[in-house]
Design a protein that fits this description.
By secondary structure, the chain is an all-alpha fold. The chain contains 5 helices and no strands.
């Protein structure tokens, strides 16, 4: 049983050995850089690193992003239904009414989000 895994173990040992040898040789043979305060500062595309690292985003941004993901996922559920619609309708028209109910529920959710001002950037 162990002989079946011998090539895999050998490959893993060779990969680990090569990685260790490459790192060791780079430490032994590589140039040592001198410490410089300017070189140690983070590079910010030519700008001096002043202030917070990450800017603050409005809660509206996250709300719109979540609504986009929710409605995007719901639309993804409609693609398989649309592809197999012709075959499914031959069996029963309930498929059409179930998707109409699903789309109606999405419409109600969208109107609710609009009424609550979730997609309003100002305010």
């Amino acid at each position: 049983m162990l002989t079946d895994y011998f090539p895999v173990i050998l490959q893993a040992l060779a990969a680990i050995g090569f990685a260790g040898a490459a790192l060791g040789l780079s430490v032994l043979l590589g140039k040592k850089g001198a410490y410089n305060k300017t070189k140690e500062t983070p590079y910010e595309c030519g700008m001096l690193p002043i202030g917070d690292g990450a800017p603050r985003f409005s809660v509206k941004f996250y709300l719109v992003a979540m609504l986009f993901v929710i409605f995007d996922i719901e639309v993804v559920f409609m693609y398989p239904w649309a592809v197999s619609f012709a075959d499914l309708v031959r069996e029963s028209t309930m498929v059409l009414w179930s998707m109409a109910g699903f789309a109606g529920l999405l419409t109600v959710a969208y109107v609710y989000a609009l009424k609550k001002g979730a997609l309003n950037w100002k305010g």
